[in-house]
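Margin note: ligand = MGD.
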Amino acid sequence: MAGSDMTGSDMAGSDMAGPGMTGNLRVPHMSHWGMFEAEVAGGEVVAAHPYHGDADPSPVLGNIAGSTGRARVTGPVVRRGWLENGPGPSTARGSDEFVAVEWDELTDLLGRELRRVVDRHGNSAIYGGSYGWASAGRFHHAQSQVHRFLNTLGGYTRSVHSYSLGATGVIMPRVIGTHWKLFARSTSWPVIAENTDLLVCFGGIPVKNTGINHGGTSNHPTRGALDALRRRGGRIVSFSPLRDDVSGEHRWIASVPGSDVAVMLALAYVLATEGLHDREFLDTHCTGYEEFEAYLLGAADGVPKTPAWAEGLSGIPAGDLEDLAREMASRRTMVTVTWSLQRVRHGEQAPWAGITLAAMLGQIGLPGGGFGHGYGSMNEPGLAPVPYPLPTLPQGTNPVPDFIPVAAISDMLLKPGEQFDYDGTRLTYPDIRLVYWAGGNPFHHHQDLPRLRRALARPETIVVHDPYWTPMARHADIVVPSTTSLERDDLSCTRNDPLLVAMHAAVPRHANARDDYDVFAEIAYKIGVGHQFTEGRSSRQWLEHLYGQWREFVLADGGDAPDYDEFRARGSVRMRTEDDLVLFEDFRENPERNPLRTPSGKIEIYSKDIAGFGYDDCGPHPQWYEPQEWLGGDRAGTYPLHLIANQPRTRLHSQLDHGATSQDSKVQGREPLRMHPDDAAARGLTDGQVVRVFNDRGACLAGLVLDDGVRRSVVQLSTGAWYDPLDPSDPDALCVHGNPNVLTADVGSSSLSQGCTGQHVLVEIEPWTGDLPPIRAYDPPVIRAR
Ligand SMILES: Nc1nc2c(c(=O)[nH]1)N[C@H]1C(S)=C(S)[C@@H](COP(=O)(O)OP(=O)(O)OC[C@H]3O[C@@H](n4cnc5c(=O)[nH]c(N)nc54)[C@H](O)[C@@H]3O)O[C@H]1N2
Ligand SMILES: Nc1nc2c(c(=O)[nH]1)N[C@H]1C(S)=C(S)[C@@H](COP(=O)(O)OP(=O)(O)OC[C@H]3O[C@@H](n4cnc5c(=O)[nH]c(N)nc54)[C@H](O)[C@@H]3O)O[C@H]1N2
Ligand SMILES: [Mo]
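Resulting structure:
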């Protein structure tokens, strides 16, 4: 375990927390898309300067300057219908007007409503799953705050796993005993750059995504590592519908979206039939290869998974697959799978088949060989972890047993009392009366927004904390105006970054906004649980307390960390990291002494537990299931374009969609949709035109961008344009802005994981011939005084 030493502050001697060249104040700060100095003038952030140590800062920083005062919730408000008629289901959510109230009235009202629901229906009637990324910073992290708050009230129905990794989070623990170690203890970028000969990437390694890291990051090494690998003579092969999923030189294989598992099986078939697989590794480190091989060769179902079979599904010539399989077996090869491949129906199969293919190559645990999941999905994979726990606000305990897989939100609200399958159990949807959201935007993250709107009409009360008038805030009954991280002191760090950063408030609180912590504390005091929530500490005292706890770990580890005031003044502290990791190196060396946390201690190519569940949509070994939303099926007869709803290049999710970088990418104010010129010509469409994208679930407008780096019959429309219904009172309204989730299906990945499947959807596209409706998404709703 090599480690870099502790060198104290990385910013000592830099111009952080002092005046910069323009004479304006600059303070150190952190966002999920990187560390920066906020330059402040006239009470506003006028520039976000990337941290000088960052090799490849994210362009998303460009959204910050000048944007943080727009679209803000300026004071507490309550929906008129709720205020006048009291709690109850309502289809007026999303089109009703709001009434401005005083803070004292708002916290009274919230306290009383929470008490009512708990007393009458019990704590499980509160949904506090509250998924979402919120902002960087360990203390003011909105999820931690809302969960701690609801726990002091006696708990809430929670959610498990994420929209990011719904399928992986359930399948990988069963196959390799963990899912997070795949990212946090992944083979490091320098090891890949120095050792990998052939990087075979399913979904590419999109550098655009590595700008982001949950909780922040001080460096972005991906682009540099890929360049270093190529300079050494390493090669990159990318299976992807988009050429630019790998930046720079590589071999682009434009396979049919959703066909990756078929391709992986065909590569495995060549290895198995030509004796290129590592029988010894499969015997010593894996279980169930025999069952899988029987399926592969067709003994199980009469269909050998040959390259010719895969050609029919993927469009990739069988000969190319044969050559690639042989090359993979002859060189140091790493197989990588992006997270997007599991955000689809049957999402378990791609990572499971990927690790099985890597196991057959026998290079798992060798430097630069084996398997990777999430290189190019997030900055974290490939970065060195820190060896001690991070400062963490304790969330208390939640005694309520009810939970849902996170993407089952609409199902839960629409089907109280109904049963469903999840990971080998039968769960029952609780009867939710109150939904409490802080730090997330379901109108960004959830599928089939028309259905979500119907679901959100069901509860009696919806509470949303957000700094901005997001579509979710518009659908709330009670809207709590939060500060942004730029208005608060905090501290930030993540498990794979060497810097603990002192985030300094750059600007005063906007209008009548308050920190989530202060709002929760006030409600908690009003209902008699104040001390449990605050433990008597102010925000500033919490920061010092959390820092102090963390400092103990560092000192015990022989490191050097200054006291709190000195830390604030320096701006950051550098931690030790575990450099040059190789994923599963220990397990490879000695699988008996370092077993995986699976039932067999080995890689489970076949899972007896999953066999026991008997699911028809997730069997006991990786296999090919025909997707619903793909070009190979009947539905493509009606909706012949495969839309990829991937992560936006120009922002994080829906955050700061009104910022400069995001706005610069829009076409006539609409979200850009990329299409191959041939597909456009076939429909009489031209570059820069506004188009209508539709299927039987919904429709949106988008701005056309022609690009021959998009596979034919595929279009790409990223997530994140704020939902902007032409008629806000109609759940089926056209979104005039370009939110792809009006089109996506609200269907779980499988009975096993019930994860988000928003990445793929079939659509048709036609010219928009009507008048161009204005974008109103960033304008606040109607708010009246009492
Ligand atoms: N079709 C499709 N849909 C997808 C995906 C896909 O690939 N395709 N990807 C999915 C994935 S991976 C994810 S992670 C989700 C992301 O979905 P979300 O995480 O819900 O999206 P964000 O836009 O990051 O929402 C964060 C919200 O927190 C607010 N916020 C920021 N700071 C604070 C604060 O201090 N306090 C409070 N109270 N609020 C704050 C922001 O204003 C914003 O509204 O989307 C998912 N949706
Ligand atoms: N700039 C930016 N970066 C982000 C985010 C963001 O909002 N903005 N969000 C972050 C979050 S929360 C997450 S979870 C990660 C998500 O990380 P991912 O889910 O990996 O990211 P995506 O961009 O959705 O998808 C990556 C690429 O997969 C390709 N792809 C899609 N379907 C298929 C397929 O069937 N086969 C193959 N071979 N390729 C396919 C698409 O071309 C797409 O560009 O991204 C993170 N990074
Ligand atoms: Mo995510």
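Confidence is low (pLDDT under 50) at residues 1-17.
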